[in-house]
Specification:
It is a single chain. With about 230 residues, the protein is an alpha+beta fold. The chain has one domain. It is about 35% helix and about 40% strand. Strands 1, 2, 3, 4, 5, 6, 7, 8, 9, 10 and 11 form an eleven-stranded antiparallel sheet that branches. A hairpin with a 7-residue loop joins strand 6 and strand 7. The termini are far apart.
């Protein structure tokens, strides 16, 4: 009899834990969608500086800085500033070889940067669809407070977007993306750190992609946020 009671209790505990986890997931997904949707609209009132730094084999190869803002038609506009720099190429045969290699890497880097932008910021609509399809998984980082949710096949088959949140503050902590640039078998991961503006708007403050097989590292930082003209 005791054994039967123990089994029933274990089943009830398991069911209750599962129910709580499901409730946490539903609430957290709703919070993520709300945060992303609101921040997407609020950020349009701001202008800021975006700095993209590219490293190869640990050495800085280029730095591109742009002033970013949304035009009246709602399009994100980026204007390169005078702070942008490029690595110097040596002369002679070595320089020619380096220049050819540089063009190959530039193509990869352009693709990598373009790929990153397809995930920034995550889309509330895509998150909802993945959740509705029952594909989302949740990991408890701190009971009742911090959670990590994984959204597989976000943009394409085999990729993964993971978002960490603090439900107490109703804020996104960070995100990571596992995807590919050229070869689907060659996975790259980039990590995103979120910050908040005084009005609660959240933005990706730092995005770092480390493509170890290519010896390439790309860091995108945003800073200097201020209300744009007319706001």
């Amino acid at each position: 009899m005791r054994k039967i009671c123990f089994v029933i209790t274990a089943i009830m505990i398991s069911w209750t834990s599962g129910a709580f986890a499901q409730a946490d997931m539903q609430e957290t997904v709703a919070m993520i969608k709300k945060n992303l949707a609101e921040s997407k609209e609020k950020i349009k009132k701001y202008e800021w500086i975006e700095t993209t730094t590219i490293f190869m084999k640990g050495e800085q190869k280029s730095l591109k800085q742009c002033q970013c803002y949304y035009s009246v038609d709602g399009k994100l506009t980026k204007v390169e500033t005078g702070a942008s720099t490029k690595a110097k190429t040596p002369g002679g045969i070595r320089g020619k070889i380096a220049e050819n290699k540089k063009e190959e890497l530039t193509d990869y880097m352009k693709k990598a940067i373009a790929k990153i932008q397809t995930y920034l910021p995550p889309s509330p609509e895509k998150i909802q669809k993945i959740y509705a399809d029952g594909k989302v998984s949740i990991q408890v980082l701190e009971p009742g407070k911090k959670f990590k949710l994984s959204f597989p096949d976000y943009n394409e088959k085999g990729d993964m977007v993971t978002i960490s949140v603090d439900k107490t503050d109703q804020k996104l902590i960070g995100a990571s993306v596992s995807t590919s640039v050229d070869d689907p078998k060659e996975k790259v991961v980039f990590n995103i750190t979120y910050n908040s503006l005084p009005d609660g708007t959240q933005y990706n403050a730092n995005t770092t992609l480390d493509a170890q097989t290519q010896n390439v590292k790309i860091v995108i930082e945003t800073s200097g946020y201020k209300k744009g003209a007319g706001h």
